[in-house]
Input
Amino acid sequence: EYGDIEIQVPRDRLGEFDPVVVKKHQTNVTGIEDQIVALYAKGVSTRDIQDHLLNLYGVEVSPTLISNVTNKIVPIIKEWQNRPLQNIYTVVFLDAIHFKVKQDGHIVNKAAYMVIGIDLEGNK
Output
């Protein structure tokens, strides 16, 4: 769904290794990719995603793998962010949350704005 992902498989000369997360001859790891994308969308850090997958599946994933998966959805996000808006919205909600952040060695206030519009059909 998110494109090809390169997986490095260790050699097993005796054929005794039985993979847990990605089974032998499996080409689709959608479950793990979906978990990574869902956690990333919620703002979970790469390290916390690694910990979650280790606890849930018992597998260690590299930060590079997580970045490769999340980088594949960036064009989809950009396309959605740049979509044309409707001309009329019956209701528009505006809100902001303020954060103190360090910028150029000083603590400054920054705002993250959120806007939700409801169109004439009642869709957000």
